[in-house]
Structures are given as C-alpha cells and as structure tokens.
Amino acid sequence: MSMQTAYNVAALAVRQRFAEQHPQALKILNSLVKDDIAVYSGAYDKVEKVLQCLQVPHTMNPDSKKTKAAIAFVNCSGGYNNQLITNLAQQVQDGMWLVSSDWALGYFIAKAFPNTVTKTNRATGDEVISVEANLDTMWSDVVVLGADPQWWLEGSSHPIQILNPELVKIEASSHDLLRRYDAPVVAVSFDWGKGHVFHVISHFWCNRSRTLTPRHRNPCTDFLEAGMKLSQEGIKKVLTQGRIKADTLNFAQIQSAATATELIAQLCVKAVGKLAVR
Question: Which residue from 58, 91, 194, 231 puts its CA 20 to 30 A from 114's CA?
Fold first, then answer.
C-alpha cells in the first residue's frame, strides 16, 4: 500500500487524537486560514502534501516580505533566492515560526540564522533510521516503547551540526545516525528574535518505511492504539473514514506517516496559538 494512503490515514488519526486528547489544539487547527501558513516550494520535499492530507489551508510562495503568516515551511531544495532568505529571516525576527527540511540546513538556515546550526561534510544514503525523541518534545507524544519512530532519509540527506548548544535544542536524535555518520541529531529548534525555527533532517513527506521488528509488521491499528492512544471508537472512525481495513497498512507505515503529520499539525497549532495570545 502506498505512503499516500498512509498519510491520508495518518491525518485522520492525528485529527482524531486531537479530538480525544487535545480539543483546544483541534479547535486551533480547524480555525486556520490560508494566510496563516506559508509554504515555499522546494525541489525535493513536499510539506504541502501533508497539509493537504490534514485539510489545512495554506498559501504557496506568498510574497516573503509582505506575508503575515504565523508559520512558514521551507521545503528542501538545492538553493534559495537570497531575497527570500533575507525576508524570512526578518519575519522570524519579528515573530514568525519557520520550519525547514534537509538541504535547507546549509543553503537557508545557516545563512539566515548564523552560528546556530549547519550541515556536516558528509551525506547519508537512501535509508530509514530509528529516532529517539527527547521526553519534553512534540515527538514524545507518539513514541511507543520498543518501537522507535522510523524516519526515511533521502539519498544525500544532510546531517546536522550544532554550532551553539546553548541556544539550539535537540528535538530528536538517532543512534543510527550517530553510528553511521557521527552526527546523531534528527531535529533541532531554537528561538530567534521574537520567532522560532524548527529544522529536521530529510523530508516530512517520506516515500517508504521499513519493518525492523515483528511489531512493525503488525496491523496499523496496533500503532493507533498503543502509539496514538486512540479509543476503540476512534480507531473504528479512522478506519471507516480512511476506507481501509486494519491490515491495509502496517504499524511501520502508519508510524512513519503519523510522526511527520503530527509534527506538522503541532507546529501549526503552536505557532498560531502563540500568535493569538500575544
């Protein structure tokens, strides 16, 4: 079964989780309008596809100097317009949240926010890694003990090097990355001016997962129950709305898609929620 199906179901599951466990977050998610979220096209990642699955309105490539978006997503690319970098850096300084993926690390983030993070001099292969979430981060809500989240690395993903450990917070790390590339960081965040920056290695829209253990081959309902802690009624609702059976997707597929989808949803909610209380 395709990862498109996994993301469609993951979006339903995230919305159901919010409804059952975080109703205020769901209220904010449902209140979003397209001007709240800006997405800047890249050559590789497709954050907008995750937002589409979540049915979250957004604006593609708005004027970076004039946009009033609470949060901007910068997709992975091999280069960015210098004016875009300058404008969005100022927007973050003034209060915007900015989220980026993979090659944006060296080509955008390191330029826009100097002496924070940069890329190492190595690149990954096309592989899937296990991720260990820090306990006080967004990742920790969807971690199942004994089944670390899976994160797909695009061939030539850029490992993260932290330049300012006092400013930069590690959101998640990976023993696989440490062992293979001596660079364990999967995601980082830091405050900049009145705004906030969140960067992740590889892509939010992943093309595959892998079944590391027998549990990863279990039906997706195992993750919906144990990982996302949905009620039995909620699980039935997700399956019905997604038009799938319990064994249509496996644990690993829904885990990979749900991890990325949950992050996108929570980042949007937190950015807009913070803006609302200023």
Answer: 58
Domain count, the chain: 1
Domain CATH number, residue 102: 3.40.50.880
**Other CB atoms within 10 A of residue 147 CB:** 20
pTM (predicted TM-score) = 0.92
Query: Cβ(74)–Cβ(66) under 8 Å?
Result: no
Backbone angles phi, psi at 47, to 5 degrees: -55, -35
First vs last Cα of the chain: how many Å apart?
44
Q: What is the pLDDT of residues 11-39, one digit of tens each?
A: 999 999 999 999 999 999 999 999 999 99
Q: For 14-20, which contacts have Cβ atoms below 8 Å and span 24 or more sequence positions?
A: 14/54, 14/228, 14/258, 14/261, 14/262, 14/265, 15/54, 15/265, 16/228, 16/230, 16/234, 16/237, 16/238, 17/228, 17/229, 17/230, 17/234, 17/262, 18/265, 19/234, 20/230, 20/231, 20/234
Q: Give pLDDT tens digits for 99-139.
A: 999 999 999 999 999 999 999 988 898 888 878 877 777 66
